[in-house]
């Protein structure tokens, strides 16, 4: 879809990794479609995951007792968030589609990516008191969680559905901000499979990207996750 | 229970916060019981949440393509993990009970605490190829997730059960490592309620701690979370 803007938030240390290959494919394929693609390469940027007082430039609203949520909300309103956050927010604001590319760490995203969520999606910017879920401030955007696992599909299936672990990230974060969620893209155990299987997984990602803009978002209700 | 060792992993920036009060209560009450209590105050320690090459001292197993899981596993086996990780692992090893005290950020733990999980619980130390779940390497230990929320209990209930978001942290991390999980301790919206209600919540935590050692762990199966 020519003209669409895509932000890929990428959390892997190694460009030669399978995640690195998935990133490369997404950049190439989406660029070929005429999209404008921006990448936030979190490890390369040495992105700060810790939510601290350093995120607020200048005075605090209440220096007596530091409250991160209140302080970042107030700082957002007066334009007093730290430069790295303002830059990420600008990228999010401009994007039509957010792709999160990462290896699953402990049934969840790596801390560096969780820190991006914690610090970038502040109140006032991503949601507000009565502006959440379908009324979230980032409505009109799409997102897609694309990740690799260590364990096989069969191993995950023995302990319940992999959709269970998507609830906090897809529903609790993106849906809360009003972002529509596309089906996740999961590459199971790329390190444990054959070179041929790995190539198949890369091809499948390319293929999916070709028709991505025609996809309908998932129904982000509890039923989708837990049936 | 005199003689028991407790590690509290604490993730809040402000000692005067409600989380700070919950921490203080736990330290005082458990010490009074004769427990030996250690606190990892992650923000005060400026704990590093990012999983990088810096976690490995000396040479890499495969410098051609950095793989964090493989490198930390190899480094663990040869005693080559960075000092901050070795110190945290020693605290975990000695503990009978792990308490995680934090404010819920985006249906999950704050990035600084997720980083503690990502970096401390490495293969070889917390689990191994065929040593997971009931056979996990940290078996014999208990844990408890104690957290505060921004939203009210009613607000959480409108979007499914709060147990849904406990799955990745309780089952995906602690149960995977063989740690038995006590029922979570949730303080809803302490910032939005009356001073009296806040005091009641603090008293309830003190009371729970008094009989904590008599509690049975939860059944950490999908049924507990999703019924």
Automatic annotation (TrEMBL), chains A, B:
<keyword id="KW-0597">Phosphoprotein</keyword>
<dbReference type="Pfam" id="PF02525">
    <property type="entry name" value="Flavodoxin_2"/>
</dbReference>
<keyword id="KW-0285">Flavoprotein</keyword>
<dbReference type="InterPro" id="IPR051545">
    <property type="entry name" value="NAD(P)H_dehydrogenase_qn"/>
</dbReference>
<protein>
    <recommendedName>
        <fullName>Ribosyldihydronicotinamide dehydrogenase [quinone]</fullName>
        <ecNumber>1.10.5.1</ecNumber>
    </recommendedName>
</protein>
<dbReference type="GO" id="GO:0003955">
    <property type="term" value="F:NAD(P)H dehydrogenase (quinone) activity"/>
</dbReference>
<comment type="subunit">
    <text>Homodimer.</text>
</comment>
<keyword id="KW-0479">Metal-binding</keyword>
<keyword id="KW-0274">FAD</keyword>
<keyword id="KW-0862">Zinc</keyword>
<keyword id="KW-0963">Cytoplasm</keyword>
<dbReference type="GO" id="GO:0005829">
    <property type="term" value="C:cytosol"/>
</dbReference>
<dbReference type="InterPro" id="IPR029039">
    <property type="entry name" value="Flavoprotein-like_sf"/>
</dbReference>
<dbReference type="GO" id="GO:0046872">
    <property type="term" value="F:metal ion binding"/>
</dbReference>
<feature type="domain" description="Flavodoxin-like fold">
    <location>
        <begin position="4"/>
        <end position="209"/>
    </location>
</feature>
<dbReference type="InterPro" id="IPR003680">
    <property type="entry name" value="Flavodoxin_fold"/>
</dbReference>
<dbReference type="GO" id="GO:0001512">
    <property type="term" value="F:dihydronicotinamide riboside quinone reductase activity"/>
</dbReference>
<comment type="function">
    <text>The enzyme apparently serves as a quinone reductase in connection with conjugation reactions of hydroquinones involved in detoxification pathways as well as in biosynthetic processes such as the vitamin K-dependent gamma-carboxylation of glutamate residues in prothrombin synthesis.</text>
</comment>
<keyword id="KW-0560">Oxidoreductase</keyword>
<comment type="similarity">
    <text>Belongs to the NAD(P)H dehydrogenase (quinone) family.</text>
</comment>
